[in-house]
Amino acid sequence: MESLETLERYKDIIPDFEGFLKVQSRPLPTSIRINTLKIERSRLLKRLDAAGVEYNVLEWYPLGLRLGPYERPGKMAEHALGYIHVQEELSMVPPLALDPKPVEKILDMCSAPGSKTTQIAQVMENQGLLIANEPSMIRLKPLRFNCERLGITNVAVTRYDGRSFPDYTFDRVLADVPCSSEGTARKDLKVLLRSGSRRSMDLQLLQVRLLRRALMLTRPGGTVVYSTCTYAPEENEAVVNQALDLAYLEQFYLPGLQSSSGLTEWSGESYSEDLKLCARYYPHQNDTGGFFVAKLIRL
Amino acid sequence: MSPSSLGSEVGSSSKARSGHKARFEAEDRSWVISLWSDRFGIPEEAFFGYSFYRMARNIWAFRGPPLPRMSFETVGLRIVSLKEDLWKPTTSAIQVFGSMATKNVVRLAERDAWEFMAGGTLEISADVEPGYVVVMSGEDILGCGLYSRGKLISQVPKDRRLQAEAGDILCS
């Protein structure tokens, strides 16, 4: 597979590289999150059981369900009524790392289509201030649609360029930044055709500015989660390394979800030893997509 | 605000001027609450912690602290749209607050519920005042319906209906 060649540059950093390549052409399992703002978990599970829906509860998150290969959750009444949200498993991780509390002030800097936003709102029990920022007008529509369907009452949507988001002091900020999306290759291999070190370097400046702005907007002691769905160290460790004058890294680990440590060197460049505290999620380790998550505490 | 045949009259007639950047302005709390209590018997307590905003012809309910000075696209949940002298509850709002309704509630059998969620019109007789109603089925609050003369017309927005057409956004 030609498109897989762009992943070859990771053969020394990804464990079981053959397994990693092999999994890319296997379809991604479908997964949903239970929206407890509209239905209790036990009631939802009872409904799925009654309808004969095939599912497994994620070991590391009781509100996440992996569905059987023939399930079509988008067609279910439970979806139309806002009881469930179709969301990739690893996309549920950054909100857990953010660990929001009700009544806090939180910013989701790159919000659309709102999967993570609505998950954060759910943990906040639908109260407090959650600003969902999304500069792209086209991407605003699915964000609004999801917030309405899921019955979200504590989200205010803004449309700023995240790099110049207006001054305010948040308790926590999620910077789930635009990236080369290599980790979504199991949904569409074509994403790999555009990826490579050059594209990643092009994205890096934007990512650094977004992360640094996120940190500037956070109170001392507050949390910033930086996440991407790519393997490229240029967009991950190299970005976080350029923000360590504003924050320190904290280890984040979910029991039951396998991850690898962040890198401390790449392509002749070396990073702070603390970068080991970042989490890399590979598709062959958990039968998922790919993700990178760094949890930072503002100095 | 006395109920008219298809909803309730709107107290204010201010309209948004086109050509200006729309802004969210604080809306009168007791008036918004009275709309919901007059029509559906939903108690004031249901709106504890919420503040209300108006932008153009929509009213929004937000459950959070005073908003920072920023330019917003949405603020909380859009709960009411204002049309001429009528107000219309959104399906989103009915799904969140409808469980506390004590009147103008229509309960459907499961077969009719699917038809309603698909956007259909049902011929049923219901003991409700003509106008917008909370539509339920079993434990589910399906959304907003319009009841008049033995007909219940689904007000569920197109992109929230079951059996949606191809191209509709159903999931992210």
In words, what does this structure look like?
The complex is a heterodimer of chains A (299) and B (172). Chain A starts with 16 loop residues before the first helix and ends with a strand. Helix content of chain A is 26%, strand content 23%. In chain A, helix 5 (115-123) links the parallel strand 5 and strand 6 (129-133). Chain A has 299 residues and is an alpha/beta fold. The relative contact order of chain A is 0.15. Chain A folds into two domains: 11-27 and 89-298, Vaccinia Virus protein VP39 (Rossmann fold), CATH 3.40.50; 29-87, Alpha-Beta Plaits, CATH 3.30.70. Chain A is built from nine helices and 15 strands. Chain B has 172 residues and is α+β, with helices and mostly antiparallel strands. Helix content of chain B is 16%, strand content 33%. Chain B is built from three helices and 13 strands, in the order E-E-E-H-E-E-E-E-E-H-E-H-E-E-E-E. Chain B has helices at 29-40, 91-97, 110-117; strands at 3-4, 7-8, 25-26, 51-55, 58-62, 72-75, 77-83, 86-89, 105-107, 121-123, 131-137, 140-148, 151-154. In chain B, the strands form three sheets. Chain B has a five-stranded antiparallel sheet. Chain B starts with a strand and ends in an 18-residue tail after the last strand. Chains A and B meet through helix 3, strand 6, helix 6 and strand 7 of A and strand 6, helix 2 and strand 12 of B.
CATH class of chain B: Alpha Beta
The CATH homologous superfamily name of the largest domain in chain A equals Vaccinia Virus protein VP39
Report low-confidence residues of chain B grouped into runs of 5 or more: 1-20, 164-172
Q: Unreliable stretches of chain A, pLDDT < 50, 5 or more residues? A: none
Distance between the termini of chain B: 40 Å
Kindly report the greatest chain-chain contact and the residue count on each side. Answer: A-B, 45 and 37 residues
Which percent band covers the strand fraction of chain B? 25-35%
Number of domains of chain B: 1
**Shape field of chain A:** globular
| Count of the separate structural domains of chain A | 2
Overall number of strands of chain B? 13
Mean pLDDT of chain B: 86
How are helices and strands ordered from N to C of chain A? HEHEEHEHEHEHEEHEHEEEEEHE
Helix and strand pattern of chain B: EEEHEEEEEHEHEEEE
CATH topology of chain B: Nuclear Transport Factor 2, Chain: A
**CATH fold-level topology of the largest domain in chain A:** Rossmann fold
